[in-house]
Design goal:
Elements (H helix, E strand, L loop, with lengths): L1 H25 L14 E3 L2 E3 L4 E2 L5 E2 L7 E7 L6 E9 L6 E5 L8 E8 L2 E8 L2 E10 L2 E10 L2 E11 L3
Antiparallel strand pairs: 1-2, 3-4, 5-6, 5-12, 6-7, 7-8, 8-9, 9-10, 10-11, 11-12
Length: 167
């Protein structure tokens, strides 16, 4: 009887050890082998990137796909579509900031753009008595800006559409 009890106890312990080994091998931390760059954080084996970065390891600056010249135009004061280019430049000291030049077809009108996601940004700018604030979105190679302009005592809303040309 003692031998039977000893065999039974050994069998139970063997099954318990085997089950623990199988359980621990199935539930490995998926983030053990994942390295996220640029302050990204691993969650379930995938990197969650901070604003301004993208890619499977957060290795790509999101703003780089915006840094082009866009040929397009806007409709601000009625149905007239006015054509002009917009120039986007990177601010090298900040991964989420860009500068937009030639807004309203005036090279003096520039705006500071701040990335909000991998394909959108907000912007604000001023030149003399003109101020403008708005949002921008990139889809494929098309830039869309929606913004509000205040000039002296008048104000109006604008929409700009442009296609990227070259860097």
């Amino acid at each position: 009887m003692k031998i039977l009890r000893l065999v039974f106890l050994s069998a139970v312990l063997t099954i318990a050890v085997f089950s623990a080994a199988v359980y621990s091998s199935c539930n490995k931390n998926k983030c053990d082998i994942v390295v996220c760059l640029n302050l990204g954080a691993c969650d379930g084996g995938s990197c969650l990137c901070p604003v301004g970065f993208e890619g499977n390891r957060c290795q790509t600056l999101s703003r780089d796909k915006f840094i082009f010249t866009y040929n397009g135009g806007d409709s601000c004061k009625g149905p007239v579509y006015y054509r002009y280019p917009i120039f986007m430049h990177a601010v090298l000291t900040d991964s989420v900031t860009m500068t937009m030049l030639n807004l309203l077809d005036n090279i003096q009108d520039s705006a500071t753009c701040t990335m909000q996601s991998t394909d959108s940004f907000t912007f604000i700018g001023a030149n003399n008595s003109t101020t403008f604030t708005g949002t921008g979105k990139l889809r494929n190679d098309s830039l869309r800006l929606v913004y509000h302009v205040t000039h002296d005592t008048s104000s109006y809303n604008c929409i700009y559409f442009g296609q990227s040309l070259t860097r």
